[in-house]
Specification:
The protein is α/β, with parallel strands linked by helices. 38% of the residues lie in helices and 22% in strands.
Length: 276
Amino acid sequence: MAKILEQIRATYQPEPEPKLELVHGFVKGRVSIIMPAYNESDCICKSVADVRNQFGNVCTDYEIIVVDDGSTDDTRRLVESLSDPKLRVVGYDRNHGKGHAFRMGFRLATGEFTFLVDSDSEIRAKELITYFEALGSTDIAIGSKRHPRSVVRTPIIRRILSLGFNVFERLLTGVRAKDTQAGFKGAKSSVFYQILPLITAKRYSFDLEFLAVASLFDFKVYELPVFIDLKALVDPRRVFRMVIDVLGIAYRLRITRWYQKNIMSMSDTYDPMIKW
């Protein structure tokens, strides 16, 4: 009996695993969803479940990457307790901001397409399939609260501030998007790969800088409807930081032309004067 088993082992050759087809170094057809999270223990499990259900209805090959951005609550522990082979979690001890968290998450992304999704369940795509359809012919698909088919539930003061900020940032940077700050964006991963080395904003102005740099590459941007339910008022400190960041982006874009000078070398060498 032992000799028979040895003969079987000697002759047995497992079937080789099918090779994954790659597109610009990313797995073709796979979707990577990056969720930056900071002190979201009250909703992170629900948010992950919502993302799983939403994307699971559109595609089968996807991965969810939750980035714990230095949370001081149980955010990371709760995510790690979820049993899901498609879920990955990465974290660090100090809070750096949404932009930094996304960059850390993108290092783990393997999919042909990457989505940035807020982890508080307040913003989601109204019709996710339209984002995938758009990415078939464009480079970047972003959610926009000003799309005529968007459903937006926010305090009136927040709407006024959002509109005023959008006018301000468009005047200074030339970004044409009617809404840069909605926390739902998708793009070809190769697009993120080219843009991220030039991104300096670690916090709230990451979205604006991403679109500003995208315009320098002549990437096509398509705005799509979202569902937004924001009850909290805007933090004045956050508004102040965003204004400073926008001025910094405009300075590098219009005056020093730092982005344009580095766009060929892709050197990530900018040292901001103000470090949040």
